[in-house]
Amino acid sequence: MAAEMARTDMMLLLVLALAAFGATNAKTVISLGSQTWTVENGNRSISASTTLPAYPLEILREQGIIEDPLYRFGELATRWVALDTWSFSLSFDGSSLAMQQLRSQKQVLLKLGGVDTFASVMLNGKEILEANNFHRQWSVPVKQLLVDGDNTLVITIKPAAAESERLQAEHPYSIPALRQMGAVGAYTFVRKPASDLGWDWGPAYAASGIHGGIELLGFSNAVLGGSFMSQAKRGDTFEVTITSELLVPPGGDSGQLTVSIPALNLQDKQAVDLDTAKTASFVSTFKVNASDVELWWPLGYGSPSLYNVSIKYTPDSPACGAAGKVQQQQQQQPGRRGVSRPERAQQQQVAATSADGAFRILSGVDLPGALTFKKMNTDSLAACQKWCQETAACQFYTFGPGPDAFCWLKRAPKLAGAIFGVRLDNGKYDLTEGVTLNGFNLGRAKNTSSVQACQAHCSSTENCKMFVLNAGKCQLKEPWAGAVTRLLGVKLSTAAASAAAAPRRRNNQRQQQQQQAAGIAPAAVPSLDALSVAADASRSSNSAAETLGTSNTPGAYSMSVTSPTGYAMGDASVTPGAYAMIVTDSTPGAYALSAGVITPGGYAMGITSVTPGGYTVGDTAAAMEAEAKDLDEFMNEVNEIINSDMPMTEEPADITGDAEDVVAACAAAASSQLSHRIGFRTVELVRLPIAEAVKDLFPAGHKGWDVESSFGVNKTNWDGSWAMTRTGRWDHFPKSSDNSNIEGESFYFKVNGVPIYMKGANLVPLHILPTNVSKAAIHELMQYALQSNMNMIRIWGGGLYPVDDLFKFTDENGLLVWMETMFACAPYPRDPDFLQNVATEVTQQVHRASWHPSVGVWAGNNEIEGSLSWYSESRTNKQLFAGDYIALFVDTIRSIIKKDQPSMAFVDSSPSNGAIVDDERQFVKRWGEDWDPRYGDVHHYAYDADCEDYSTYPKAKFISEFGSQSYPTFATYAEYTAPSDWQVDNYMTGFRNRRFANGLEVLETQFKRHFRLPATWSAPNDPEEAYKLFRSFFYITHMQQARCYEAAINYWRRLRSQPAGLTMGVLYWQLNDIAAFASWSGYDYEGRWKPLAYAVKRMYANLQVQAIQDGPQTKIFLVNDHTTAVNTSVEVSVLSLSDSADAAECAVQQQQPAALFTVPVAPLFAEMVWTMPTEDLLATRKGCTKTTCYISVTASGKASPSAAEETSVAQLFLVPLKDINLPDPELQLSEFRPLRPSQNSAEPADSDSADSPAAVTFTLKSNRPAVLTNLNTKIKGRFSDDAFTALHPCQPRSITFYPHASVEQLTAAQLKADLAAESLFDHQYGMAGQ
Question: Which N-terminal stretch is annotated as signal sequence (predicted)?
Fold first, then answer.
């Protein structure tokens, strides 16, 4: 038994030694981003602390140096930030244990996940990288440059706008760039999101910063550096090709590469011999029978099934440091007895309350945002804590052990009305009034004035330790985690201290009683100082610089000038903002802290930033060891045990099997693994002659709109189409049976062999800074797309490549992605350096996206083919710019995509006429007008045309952009502007519209076609009237936009089954906003739904009814996106604007529809199912004319017997709304009641949390027909439906309001008090005919 125990103890020590040295010696990763960096501007007049990723613009906002850049004219007020040079610097200790392990590796790489954009990277005074591409990652060997002691890494970022203009000026010939209103720089010369420099829907911040992670990667065995996949279906078999890429250390390596798809029991093993220091690639191929897998389908057509993929590399000779030595010792001395030693538990960060309950103690963190007012040198933690306890002003202390031990007393900045909360062990909070804490925010502030809600928010948020509640905002706080050698003490109130100490006292009493009962003498409790291990922590500190009289106070800054008065690049005498923010001391390094009295924390071997607590033998519930030793001391003891030749006291134990286990553990630690998911599917972009496409798209026996209607008064045939002839002239073609005389080719997508009509929108960047976009914000926006019945999202080429969180969502929810490389709206250079930079960028992004089945097509750019006709330079030298275009988008980008994703659909530009030849051997482009509806996809903008007249829209095959403008919802606009801005003729109204210099005039020209407008929008001497006019202006922009899109989308939806159209997709411009600006979006910057969003939701329904006026006829169309026929009931009614809510009158209306019939609608098809002369239709209702009545059509049907019934409603006014005198509808809101999200599965809540506030259901009704209804509330959220063309008094609507996740609590009474309903009656001026 004793020998067995000795053997067990020995094995524990051996495994611990491997954990400490072996695993980390196989591969070492040190995150630099989580450490504390200093960020400074060009003349060092501003200095602040930060972790990475970070942007100076946001750091300055958080520190209060600048106001919110998005508020009012913040774009201009903060422009100097974009024009300055910014440096991020970090000092770290090369002598720490982790750094020693890292430097012992054969190869060490500095990896930068994303730099924005022109950056010089210096390590210990030597430039190691000149980065110049936002869209790619960087990796640089640095092993030879790392030293003992201080290492300094500096990343200096130059202003992108100035650099782009310099590069443009230096180019050997002039390359034009689109210059939007308010834009800066020449975006085509900088590999950065083009919209960062300004676009016609957003501001120009041109921010510099670091948007990706930064780490040091050391390895002595090869490690997996990346992978990508492609798939193709041949017959009934999927062929999946997975390419694994390995980073190989100097001297090479060998091992086994295993790629597997576990759910399918598929595995490929390869013995790989790596004799090069370059990246090595290995291909694994799997053949999968299609009948053996569940296919990935887009929304509405099946489940988006996914399969896990595992890629693992295991080296033949793991570089586990002592591993070989361990194995040798065990084999040579099998009987050597081990010395018993406790097993240390897994590391966890110390966050506990002191024994006396007076302080909340956090390890490895600090609060530079608090103000240091006293300092002393002491190595006594007890003395530091006592000093703070006895100093009334002290609210925090920072204790740093080691040879230069110190104690700083700190206080929080005062702020009247603020509440500062600290989270305790028991989950409760200690509250202090009248103080705040600068910086170190965790996420975005939440809107609330409730202390309880703020506490709950912190409790449910990972890493939240504190919060500040002020002015209706709850800001969570996470202390700076870079202070690995420090303890932070937070003084608690007397009541909190007593409450916190009570459980500890009770626990100690129970332990003493148990020990006495067992006859065990109570152990001596070590003092607080005994637990403060003064390890040899290497400290590096910045010199105590003082600028403008700044004291040496972490987190403090001096402000000698109250406002920026000027700026000169590189002029040290000018201080933009006149802020000096100097952090005078930082102490990165490492030490081992034993804090057993504070908490039984864990221990992580080989991790320098840990703060281990006590350790136990086997059972973590056992008694803690009274005196812990630091990591170096413990490992020295382990090595002595391993190397000793101790005499035997028992019979030798057989530990051969254990030695094998240790070696296996070493190999496992040295292995490298990647995990992905794949979805089996095919996505084809079908381009066929029209006659062939008709045969593919139309159900058997259907010829499109030729189908005769037997339900209407008249029978009618489709009378032909306008199309473009081979000579380039528009002409009218009579309909023929074979469609052979229609010029052009199809453009549609087939997924798993099914031709699917694509319904979606274009995504633009969600925020001016990529680091401010959360996973929750991405999911929220994509959830809106699902709720609006979209099945495709286009990633516009003027922004940035999506993060993995977006791809993950689209994969899991069946949203197809039209992906573009990031080029837009102007010619780009094609010099060798530029092309090589782009090649690396595109390769990285294509490889990353390859794992996502939702990515269905790649496009080379946005509108660049068309832009060649926009600029005089390209118009006068077509050959030169066509050559540049081919070199970049065909020879470079297309070649990369087709090489690594051979089955991926690719279009060189959007829009484009496509190619005459596009195969594996060659690509011959079809040059010409890229707006030609005969070929490819089309972007359509015609601001001079009547947007409500469908005949003005082209019969394009696929519309990847179109739209018209509106402003944000007023609630959102009001958050970023002041009441003084709320006038139509105010400068702010034009400042936030970047599309037109005469924006109001362009919008008003469209409005006048359909609405009765006021004689003037100006009321300078009547603020109340000016505000009313402003609200009317916003309302009309929203309703006009919705009606424009309705005319266009409905037209293109029914054109899917008209041979001269064959329209098979609409992606409207644009899904979202980057700021509270006028734009084409359906969802504004704060996520509120505009009327357009509700209209799109109805238009994109899988079963949709349409009512149109075509000359003298009223026609009814049904669109069926289902793969099965739908037997549909249709009711056509003529309703009067004088109708009331009288019950008897409503009963008559329900019994006397103008038409009532049932019709089958073919699958994946649009059919005209009914037609009647409009005059005859009006005659069915006595007294009705085009100005007094309107048409209402309701269609209902099921896609299958078990499916839910779908209902679609269409309403048609027969004259422009300006020609109708509308009655006061007397809108009413009633019957408010709460509704939990689980009570309505058809409308999921926008938050996944079960604690999200209840939705509220209410009824909207009227006493007369209400035209173009709109619901308004300041409460953030969305309605289940809104923006009705007409709300009839006999048909009240039950509506649900779903509050945004940021709304902590919502009652029916709160919504009722804030909700208002309006209609066109409230915004129609004058009388018809005047």
Answer: 1-26
pLDDT tens figures, 28-62? 999 999 999 999 999 999 999 999 999 999 999 99
pLDDT of residue 508: 54
Distance CA 838, CA 822 (A): 10
- In the chain, the amino acid numbered 1028 is K
| Number of neighbours of residue 1183 by Cβ within 10 angstroms | 9
Q: Which residue has the tokens 């291990």?
A: 533
pLDDT the model gives residue 661: 60
For position 368, what pLDDT does the model report? 64
How distant is the alpha carbon of residue 994 from its chain centre?
25
Q: What is the sign of the dihedral through the CA atoms of 917, 920, 921 and 925?
A: positive
Closest Cα partner for 1195 from 1265, 1289, 1076, 1106?
A: 1106
Structural tokens at position 623: 């008694």
Q: pLDDT (tens digit, 9 = 90+) per residue, 511-536?
A: 556 556 656 554 443 333 433 332 23
Distance CA 676, CA 231 (A): 14
Q: Identify whether the C-beta of residue 193 lies closer than 8 Å to the C-beta of residue 2.
A: no
Residue linked to tokens 């000016």: 1026
Q: How far apart are CA 456 and CA 427, in angstroms?
A: 10
Task: For 1269-1279, write each residue's pLDDT tens digit.
Answer: 999 999 999 99
Q: Which residues contact 690 (CB under 8 A, 6 or more apart)?
A: 739, 742, 743, 744, 745, 746, 1059, 1060, 1062
CB 1086 within 8 A of CB 972: yes
Return the higher-pLDDT residue of 810 and 607: 810
Q: How many CB atoms lie within 10 A of CB 621?
A: 7
Strand partners for 1117: 1106, 1168
pLDDT of residue 439: 65
Looking at residue 481, what is its pLDDT? 61
Name the token pair of 948: 């409500």
DSSP string computed for 967-984: PPPHHHHHHTS-GGG-ST
Do strands 855-859 and 905-907 pair parallel, antiparallel, or not at all (unpaired)?
A: parallel
Phi and psi at residue 953, to the nearest 5°? -95, 145
C-alpha distances out from residue 736 to 551, 691, 692, Å: 87, 10, 14
Neighbours of 1117 (CB within 10 A): 25
CB of 670 closer than 8 Å to CB of 314? yes
Strand (E) positions, 958-1112? 959-962, 1065-1068, 1103-1110
Helix axis angle for 656-670 and 2-17, nearest 10°, is: 20
How far apart, in whole angstroms, are the C-alpha atoms of residue 1134 and residue 397?
77
Handedness of CA 925, 926, 932, 936 (dihedral sign): negative
In angstroms, the CA 782 to CA 776 distance is 10
**What DSSP letter does each residue of 1142-1155 carry, written as one string?**
-HHHHHHHHH--SE
Q: Are strands 959-962 and 938-940 parallel, antiparallel or unpaired?
A: parallel
For residue 351, what are its two tokens?
């966050």
Using alpha carbons, select from 1033, 1276, 989 the residue that is nearest to residue 72: 989
Residue in 643, 633, 629 with CA at minimum distance from that of residue 339? 643
Q: How would you list the strands of the sheet with 47-50, edge to edge?
A: 47-50, 37-41, 86-93, 150-158, 118-123, 126-132
Question: In the structure encoding, which two tokens stand for residue 565, read together?
Answer: 């008065």
**Minimal CA–CA distance to 258: which of 250, 246, 248?**
246
DSSP state of 1052: H
Three-class SS of residue 1172? strand
Among 27-31, 229-233, 628-632, 1101-1105, where is mean pLDDT lowest? 628-632
For 165-208, the pLDDT digits (tens) are 999 999 999 999 888 899 999 999 999 999 999 999 999 999 99
Give yes or no for a cis peptide into 53 (omega within 30° of 0): yes
CB 177 within 8 A of CB 188: yes
| CB contact at 8 A, 532 and 379 | yes
